[in-house]
């Protein structure tokens, strides 16, 4: 679809425009944004239903790093993931919504976001993701990270919080509650998923800039 068609589609997410505005302002002012009940109810519900009927066999252990450096390192992370490719109605609607956000951010923040990739994550009891950044300066084209949580009724004792490091000694702790959406600059904010005590579901996604050069198409799509 062309940007113009997406701009039209964005109208169907007009209820999300105040949220897009908040995210844009927060990212500009402080590099991150935390929003509760962020998505349209119908979209959230369809993602949750899809997540629940998806067979856990579709998930594979997540790796660390890119391409040649990619490896499975269960000391760093122990979640399982399933990439979202738009095969399902829920996945498709999610990608349309994130595209509307992308178009909004590009016209208000001039980030030049070019593509988006995302996956469901499952953290089984005991799973975690140690402190990391989603992109290394100059090495990756991931610009903006998004995490959406799919866990109704998360309790303080359930663990599995996301810790966002604003600086070495200043971090915020976020409960992975149903409908909470966290956005942050991929290169700027180290973060960590604390060990969870119950099954924890989320979608993690990244907006990327176009890192293509003459001899390399990156991102590939
Ligand atoms: C990630 C990540 C955070 C979360 O997948 O890179 O940091 O809270 N996820 O699931
Ligand atoms: Mn991360």
Description of the molecule:
It is a single chain. This protein has 221 residues and is of the alpha+beta class. The protein contains 4 helices and 11 strands, in the order H-H-E-H-E-E-H-E-E-E-E-E-E-E-E. It has one domain: q2cbj1_9rhob like domain (Jelly Rolls), CATH 2.60.120. It is 26% helix and 27% strand. Strand 7 and strand 8 form a beta hairpin. Helix 2 crosses helix 4. 32% of the residues are buried. The model has no long low-confidence stretch (mean pLDDT 88). Bound molecules: N-oxalylglycine and manganese (II) ion. Manganese (II) ion binds next to loops.
Summarize the structure.
The protein is an alpha+beta fold and 221 residues long. The protein contains four helices and eleven strands, in the order ααβαββαββββββββ.
How would you summarize the topology of this molecule?
Elements: H1 3-11, H2 17-30, E1 32-35, H3 41-53, E2 60-61, E3 80-83, H4 89-109, E4 115-123, E5 129-132, E6 142-149, E7 162-167, E8 170-174, E9 181-185, E10 191-193, E11 200-208
Antiparallel strand pairs: 1-9, 2-3, 3-4, 4-11, 5-10, 6-9, 6-11, 7-8, 7-10
Helix pairs in contact: 1-4, 2-4, 3-4
Bound molecules: N-oxalylglycine and manganese (II) ion (MN).
